[in-house]
Design goal:
Blueprint lengths: L10 E2 H7 L6 H9 L11 E2 L13 H11 L7
Parallel strand pairs: 1-2
Helix pairs in contact: 1-2
Length: about 80
């Protein structure tokens, strides 16, 4: 699911949960992303429902997440 988010695009935790078949599991998605260290899963592309970035579990935190998204062509709407 998260691996299918294209570069330059984001999906909210709730959208990921809904596409996985459980629309009420946005927090669970957040927990999974928080504990993900598999570099093949682009967890930096998962954001809050209001479009803000939220946290990032790797070195550099939220600012690193922002830089990665911008490098991929993301248009900052916040």
């Amino acid at each position: 699911m998260v691996k299918d988010i294209p570069k330059g695009k984001t999906m909210s935790y709730g959208e990921v949960a809904k596409r996985a078949g459980n629309s009420g599991s946005a927090r669970a998605v957040g927990t999974i992303m928080k504990n993900n260290f598999d570099k093949s899963v682009p967890c930096h592309r998962v954001v809050k429902s209001d479009g803000s970035l939220g946290e990032y579990n790797r070195t550099g935190g939220t600012e690193a997440k922002r830089k990665m998204l911008l490098k991929e062509g993301w248009k900052n709407s916040c």
